[in-house]
Amino acid sequence: MNKQSIFIVGLTALILLLTSACTETSKQKEETTFTDKQLGQMLVVGFRGTKVNSESLIVQNIKNYNIGGVILYDLDFELEEFGRNISDPDQLLKLNTALVGYSSTPPIISVENDGSLQSPLNDLYSEWNNIFQNNQFSDTNQVKEYARNFAQEFMVVGLNSNFHPRLDLKTPTNNAPVPGLISQNPEKTTEIANLILDEYDTEKLLSVPKYFPGYSSDYHPRDSIDNISQNWTEQFLIPYRNLFDTRAIGGVQISHSTNTNIDADWPGSLSHKTVSGLLRDSLGFEGVVFSDDLQKPIITSNFDLETSIEKSINAGVDILVFGNNHQYDAEIVSKVIQIIQKLLREGKIQPETIQSALERIDQLKQDVIAELCTCLTT
Q1: 37-377 in CATH: which number?
Q2: What is the pTM of this model?
């Protein structure tokens, strides 16, 4: 073989090698990057208004970012006014139907109707709230009726998800009754939770037990700190373990409380030890993990937005909840997605973490949300 032939063979081999490397790099890039609309599925967001149209900010967020869903409130914490998203059942159905109609992916349409004084459906159905507000759990028939009424009404007004029941155990930090808390006894808490979940499951609603692994009884949403370390014991885990062992739980919501028994450095929603270590690895939970509202003062007064996003996703949280209620930010969706993209580029969040979250969210929507959304459009 002459020199020219050797040169041609070598050049051809080099070209093939470079082509293969470029193809592999391109393939790897495709596998490790995500569009804004993919990342949007990791967000559940609050907004202001009792009706929407094509120009509404929340609709633009749905269209441009394909957000995973919304959370509706009656009370606007920042404005200290009621009527934020809910005025009457007919209005609520029209609002939810419109939100589904604008969505290309079935959206989570959620509330936190847990019997607390801020429950968004209190005014609409005040006669049904007294059980949880007054901690009347001795009559299990009343509990069943309460849960059945709300589960059926959720279907009527187009809601498909509720952050409820609350599985925190009562702690001795406050002697006054705490609406929404069931009991200091983990077995009693499990019993009542199962009654509620039975009714929600009958209507095929998404019920999200909360707040893992617990808040203090006297924690208030306006508080800038909650340290449950002294009152928390492994008894708090029993209701979760009982439920995971006996029924399918699609989602769990994480608290923002500090608990040095589990993690001395980070609050629950930002803690890998809490979410991935305790909830997933130790208790075996395989469903979707929701953060508590990341705009509550307990987070915003202690961490900047980028830190809370980075730590919560790396902790194992799948869906970041931004209620846009304690502090309203019209640009919160675009800000959060830009930060996630930045953290991915910098290698501070790994692509496989995002991919796993998206797969769990997609499965949850196939199992529960899609059918309920279809009911509103047919």
Answers
A1: 3.20.20.300
A2: 0.89
